[in-house]
Amino acid sequence: MVFDQAADLGPHLNLLRSARETPTVAVVSPQADRSRIKRLEAVGVTVLEAGGLPQALSLLRAQGIASLLVEGGAQLAGALVAAGLVDRYYWIQAPVWLGEGGIPALPGLPGGSLDQAERWRVVERKPLGDDTLLVLDRP
User: Fold this and answer.
1) Which residues of 90-118 are buried (b: 16+ CB within 10 A; e: fewer)?
2) Are 92 and 104 in contact (CB under 8 A)?
3) pLDDT, tens digit, for every residue of 86-121?
4) Which helix (H) or strand (E) holds 38?
5) Coil, helix or strand at residue 40
6) By CB count within 10 A, which of 27, 83, 97, 100 is most buried?
7) Model pTM?
């Protein structure tokens, strides 16, 4: 499953080359280019058009998908958390300080005061070499 608003997945990707053997779903914006959508469908990708993440998850539920493990970039993670669509978050932390030039872990979250910030419950902490896995549940 791929969230790709623009339906811009390149034909060179293994994901697309194996779409007929491995069920592959792309969630795209209703404004995505029709020729790109047709290209995805031609290689066996099921394309779902959604106007936002809540609608996308509703469409997936209608397809029988009740749970997702999302491995994505910061933009997708931030959007899912900000929309209240995440129940459990697996966060791998590295002891590296990138400073102001770094990419925020969860861009798009609304700012607020510390006393109003949503508090998640730590379920697990686990060392992964020099990194740490932190598993959090939404309250």
Assistant:
1) eeeeeeeeeeeeeeeebeeeeeeeeeeee
2) no
3) 999 999 999 999 998 888 888 888 888 898 888 999
4) helix 34-42
5) helix
6) 27
7) 0.79
